[in-house]
Design brief:
single chain; 244 residues; alpha+beta; 9 strands; elongated; dihydroneopterin aldolase; FolB_dom
Length: 244
Amino acid sequence: MSLPTTTDVVLVDTIQLTANIGADCWGRPREQFVFITVHLHLKPSFLEISGQSDNVVDSIHYGHLTKAISALSASYTDVRALVNEVTQKAFALAGENVDAVRVVIGLPKQILLANDFEVEVITPRGKDSLHQAAKVSVKDLVMPVLIGVNPPERLAKQRVITNITFYEKSGMHKVDYPAIIQQISGEIENTAYLTLEKFVLHIVRISCLASDAIEAVTTRSQKPSALSFAHSSGVEMTRYRDAF
């Protein structure tokens, strides 16, 4: 196991707003809940100054950052436009002591049947966040599936909880993730499986081939009803697009 590298980070976790970032889970362009988390990746050992002085003025004033983000406008062309504005605010307020800004936008009402939808972008200083690669996560997607090798499992569908992480290539992309999830759900609905391995590989393949902008996909699926004395059984796979 490799040892961690020395890092200094100031973060503001889960600022709640309402904003119009395009269509919601019903395809209607209107305001929805938005949760914003910002990580300021600082120059090495920057926080040692305030750590030794115990004085807030020697650090980054995350209160000012929180107020600036809370005061953002309520309408954007899409979620990446919101990421870009948050990133610019963070660099402007934190000054030269920040090497990179990581922004995570959570949209819990974006995907039907899923618990959350997140877009994460890391932007180095001097770069444009709109052209940076994004990590997009669909969390706790619940689908009823006919799956399993035991006789009772062949008679009724059971809940399968799936998390899918899409790794986009760098560049400005327009990927319709609700449509991808709808495609996955549609194919799963009319299919039966003996194993989670087959189920997960099917989802990974659909996800990788859904858009040229997607470079890789990680899928983890779990059966909460499979074992009496465990939370769930599960399978996780990561594949690059060129594997298919």
